[in-house]
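Obj: model holo form, ligand = (2S,3S)-3-hydroxy-2-methylbutanoyl-COA.
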Amino acid sequence: MSDVVGYEVRGRIAVVTIDNPPVNALGHAVRVGLIEQIDRAVADDAAGAIVLIGAGRTFPAGADIREFDQPPRDPHLLTILDSFDAVEKPIVAALHGTALGGGLELTLGCHFRVAAPGARVGTPEVKLGIFPGAAGTQRLPRVAGLDHALELIVMGEPIGAAKALDYGIVDEIIEGDLLDGAIAFAEKVLEDGTPRPISSEPKEGIGTPEQFAEVIQKYRDLAARRMRGQESPLEAIESVLDGLRMPYEQAVAADRERFPRCKDSDQSKALRYAFFAEREAAKIPGVGKEIQPRPVETGAVIGAGTMGGGIIMCFADSGIPVTAIETSQEALDRGRIDEAEMARRVALISTSLDYSDVGGADLIIEAAFEDLELKKEIFAQLDGVAKPGAILATNTSYMDINQIAAATGRPEDVIGLHFFVPANVMKMLEVVRTDTSSPEAVATGMRVARAFGKVGGLAGVSHGFVANRSRAPLVREAIFLVEEGATPAQIDQVLRDFGLPMGVLAVSDLSGIDVSWRMRQSLAHLRDPEERYVHLADRLCEMGRFGRKTGSGWYTYGDGGSLPVPDPEVDEIAAAVAAEQGIERRQIDDAEILHRCLYAAVNEGAKIVEEGVALRASDIDIMWQYGFGFPRWRGGIMYHADRVGLPEVLARVEEFHAAHGKLWQPSALLCDLAASGGSFTG
Ligand code: T1G
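Output (holo structure tokens):
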């Protein structure tokens, strides 16, 4: 008998329980067990109906993604749920937790679905570069209607039980004990002799592609906009269209060809890599489940500027009361807390000019101006007022947090919490561990990331930590390429075509070219005279071209507009700087632009891993996805380098090293892996 699918009879209802922790993934053993136990229920005279339920925290959350790289093994999930169509006894699926992908498809094979109020259902397959491969694209439109089905299938976002009831996916919400409620529901079906709806049967009026042309175009447009460059949403739409164009059996047969093609695609492999890399990023040696994070029930933020305001919202968004500290009432009033947002969260946000008002906070995040001496002063002051055990964090994006921690008498409680702009929107949170941060402090930082609905990634102390440090060489090369003859528009187009949401120079204009200019000025004493320097960026700032905020930067922005317009003046300035620096200007092809930008970041990423500033290369990839919008279907810069092949990447890096000098010194790790046939991401 199956040890992952249980069987019992309660009254006249057979209860089939899937028990395959942690998420009851529908791996091979579960599929075999399901067939066994359903056959048993069918043959069991004591059972008039069947309830299918998941043990533990959730109904099956889909197929077992780990099996995707293995040869497929029968029974296929499709075979199982198609067999339900022929089962005379009503099958009721009882949903709790997250019934996702194959899990939801399994319920569509059942005749009825009931759910706990907190249940969520969805078909997130497009996020793995595939589409619902067990007839979800055929059955869901028949159950929920085409528009709702396409919403779930193409966008991949789950919905709650109430909406699922509204969409007709769920027949009843069960308050109280789910199993008892499901059994009662099955009993009633038997009593009433309610006919069993078969979701594979043609649904009268399901309609034709022509009738639904507008709805289909809506989702094509949404997919093109929200998942630019990704193939699976369009494959999913084709699969749904097949369901309108042909009988169920034919459409399902077409999927049996389409699905493996998607599953074996580079995009799907990259997206599966990203799925597991994201979960790996949360695992920190020495900071395991045995380390208890400190509770964070109250917070405080020092500085209510652009970043501070966003961080205050993160606290309020997650229901944690927060005190905002500023140096003057004027600064507080100027504070970047949106009025409407403030109104909604006013109960949770309080403001003060007095540091003693943060004495009770569990977590204090400093988001003041990027000045080391100022931050050390602030931490010394916080050390004097914060309660024992409070976590003191700085949002600096590149400074030496060891020095900031040393300004306190509790360096073990100091970490970096580096938010990305805008802080209440970007999903990445870089948790910076200093030489003295305690495992509890790090664990608390990672837990706060989850509480804020973000993805936490660990970084060591280094200039720019992991994310900004690995990205800075990309920005550097883009600036050098403009000096050498490429235009900002050409460079940004190459990166957009590669899949980045915005070009790197347009992003600089958005966040302000002067931010890194001021940083360079404050670190001028550390500059290596042998290294090439970004003279052009300085020149633009000396001319007051800070980007959007001054109406011009790498581009010009007519009348306060937001659309970057190529500005020939920038080419003139570049030519002048090039002449001063003795740089010969030339035509530069797109391949060189892409390789110099990406491989500069890859080479730096390798140095970051080799130095232990990042635990793994895949952490860098997760930071690029959630911090810089790097296309998830490309996996990340390190994963991409592995796909290209490290010997080829190294060859280009060595070429650029010969041509452009010291900044391109190949990473030892890159050299070793290229020589040994190894890879960054395994
Ligand atoms: N397969 C294998 N392992 C899985 C898994 C899955 N589907 N889902 C989760 N895990 C592992 C995960 O790696 C982690 O492992 C642990 O479970 C806890 O997960 C035929 C083909 C369900 C919302 O895309 O979105 O069905 O790190 O840390 O934050 O059409 O996991 O502890 O070793 O994420 O509470 C469709 C994927 C598959 C859902 C829970 N299903 N999972 O989130 O926990 S394709 C999905 C999730 C499919 C059919 C097709 C989330 C979750 P470890 P976790 P969580």
